[in-house]
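Feature request, filed as a ticket because there's no other form

It would be nice if the structure record came with a short human-readable summary line next to the tokens. Right now we just get the raw output. Example of a typical job, pasted below so the devs can see what we mean:
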Amino acid sequence: MTTERAADSACPVCGGHAFEHAAVVWPGLVAEWGLSDDEARVIDVQQGTHCVQCGSNVRSMALARALLDVRASAGTLTALVDDPAQATLQILEINHAGTLNPYLSRLPRHQLVSHPDFDMMRLVVPDAAYDLVVHSDTLEHVPDPVKGLEECLRVLRPGGAVVFTVPVVPGRLSRSRRGLAPSYHGAPDRIEPGMLVHTEFGADVWTLVLRAGFSRCKLVPFLFPAGLAIVGRK
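Raw output as currently delivered:
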């Protein structure tokens, strides 16, 4: 494990400046995805570099920065969720959004559901029920990611936003794993059906947001290229 200070980036979750890294990508996953050494390093930083103060990893910090951008806040996520002005925010979190669930759950009108038990392609939620839909590294486990995003769009109010992350390999295009050997996230010695990867996302990930019907798409980076969050606006 290595520790370093980020000279130009504070943690968007808590404001911390010290980061640690521990390798999390294993050789089998690198082989399944056909990752180069540089691509493997990007994914490893995304998942394995974290804030010493709050424990959020790079993907969670990118997600937090995107949430702050959507809410036009210059502070931290910690301050945002404790702001009384956010008390009426209706937010749907699909699976635990990285390490952000303890913060998001402090919002009075927060709801957490779990995919695949709560099917992301057929959300049992009324139309236009939420201001925000948040998920992190979940869409790659959905058989039809565009359908999953269409459902996010359906349950959002006008002006609402979906904010999410997926593992992105920036130097390639997205590909379906249909017809390829099964690949699972989580850990090399644990196979869970819900962790089966259906899509490997690349630099064109933003096109899925527009194909799903969102009017605008924005990419929000943190320690790019490892950290990237995607925002779709209704």
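Something like this underneath would help us a lot:
DSSP finds seven helices and twelve strands in the chain.
The chain has a mean pLDDT of 91.
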